[in-house]
Write a structure and sequence with these properties.
With 136 residues, the protein is mainly beta. The protein is built from no helices and 9 strands. The strands form 2 sheets. The chain has a 5-stranded antiparallel sheet with strand order 1-2-9-4-7, with no helix packed on it. It has a 4-stranded antiparallel sheet with strand order 3-8-5-6, with no helix packed on it. 31% of the residues are buried.
């Protein structure tokens, strides 16, 4: 078996994408699973440019029985944000433009992955990410 996971796009506009992630664990957990694939996000409607990266604008999350790490994807993934075990929180980074991707250039994709830790059967998370889209 595997964890029961969903990824639901709530909004995907020219400037912002909002995605809801859920997991109900069977004890398997997730390891560096890509949750935000920037190439799958909508292109800019005015310029036609594809989305090449995102900044973390806001995060709302609730974890039960496990913690999770959001990761900037590259040859060596870099931590974007830690989500504590048994915790509910929200953070807004839009006042300063969002948390930027700090992954090293080697293999940097612009994507965001997720890894869970301390997961057991019945543990869960719900995460809502507001992402500020980047184009090049």
């Amino acid at each position: 078996m595997a964890d029961a996971v969903t990824s639901t796009t709530i909004q995907d506009g020219d400037r912002v994408a909002i995605v809801q992630l859920t997991n109900t664990s069977d004890g398997t957990g997730e390891s560096a699973v890509v949750k935000i694939d920037v190439s799958a996000l909508a292109s800019n409607s005015a310029s036609g440019l594809p989305c090449t990266g995102v900044k973390l604008g806001k995060i709302v999350y609730s974890t039960f029985g496990m913690s999770a790490k959001l990761l900037w994807v590259a040859d060596v993934n870099t931590i974007c944000w830690d989500l504590n075990e048994n915790y509910t929180d929200s953070e807004d980074f839009t006042d300063f433009g969002g948390i930027v991707n700090t992954a090293a250039a080697s293999g940097k994709t612009g994507d965001i992955a997720l890894t869970t830790t301390g997961h057991a059967s019945g543990d869960s998370y719900v995460i809502v990410l507001t992402l500020i889209k980047e184009y090049s």
